[in-house]
Write a structure and sequence with these properties.
mainly alpha, 4 helices, single chain
Length: 187
C-alpha cells in the first residue's frame, strides 16, 4: 500500500515494541493535555482548571466473615493433606550403620600393599638388568668392521708435525701446576 511493502512491517509484535508504543502514546497524551490546559487558561484567565480525567470511584472492599475464613482454611488444609499423601513415597528402611575398618584389617591391607609394591619394584629392576645386558650385545652386533681408507704418508707426517707444534705451544704458555696435596695417613 502506497510504497510500503508487507515485508517491511513486522508480522508479530514483540513485548519491547508494544512497551515502546505505550511510552510514546503516553508522551503524546501529556503534550495534548498540556496544550488543552494552556488553551483553557487563555480562554478564562481567572477560572479554576477542571481535572483532565476524573478517577473512577473505588468500590468498597468486601469482607469475609470469620466463619467463612475458617471454612476456607479448613478446606485448604484438607486439600493439602490429600496432596501430601498422594506424593509421599513409601517409607524407606532404616539406613545401615556406616562400616568401620578394624585395626587388624587395616594392617593386613597395608602389608598386602607393601608386598605388591615390592614385587613390582623387583620386576622393574629385573627388566632393567636384562635390558642392560642386552644393550652391550646389540652394540657389538651393530659394530661391523669398517675398512679404513689407506692413509697417505705425507698426511700422517703433517699431522704429526702439527701435534708436536701444538704440544710445544701448550708447554710454553701453561704455568707451572702446583704440586698435588699430600694425602693424610688414614687412621
Amino acid at each position: 500500500m502506497y510504497g510500503v511493502k508487507d515485508t517491511d512491517m513486522p508480522t508479530k509484535l514483540s513485548d519491547e515494541i508494544i512497551a515502546a508504543a505505550i511510552v510514546g502514546f503516553e508522551e503524546q497524551k501529556r503534550r495534548i493535555d498540556r496544550t488543552i490546559s494552556e488553551l483553557k487558561a487563555t480562554l478564562a484567565p481567572g477560572a479554576p482548571e477542571p481535572e483532565a480525567t476524573p478517577e473512577p470511584a473505588r468500590r468498597k472492599r468486601r469482607r469475609i466473615s470469620a466463619a467463612g475464613r475458617k471454612a476456607i482454611a479448613e478446606a485448604q488444609r484438607k486439600r493439602w493433606a490429600e496432596a501430601k499423601k498422594a506424593s509421599e513415597p513409601a517409607p524407606q528402611p532404616a539406613a545401615k550403620p556406616k562400616r568401620r575398618l578394624s585395626e587388624a584389617g587395616r594392617r593386613a591391607i597395608i602389608e598386602a600393599t607393601k608386598k605388591r609394591w615390592a614385587l613390582k619394584r623387583a620386576e622393574a629392576a629385573k627388566a632393567e638388568r636384562a635390558a642392560k645386558k642386552a644393550a652391550p650385545a646389540k652394540a657389538a652386533e651393530k659394530r661391523a668392521p669398517v675398512k679404513k681408507a689407506p692413509v697417505k704418508k705425507t698426511a700422517v707426517k703433517k699431522a704429526a708435525v702439527k701435534k708436536a707444534a701444538a704440544k710445544k705451544a701448550v708447554v710454553k704458555t701453561a704455568p707451572a701446576a702446583p704440586p698435588p696435596p699430600a694425602e693424610a695417613p688414614s687412621s
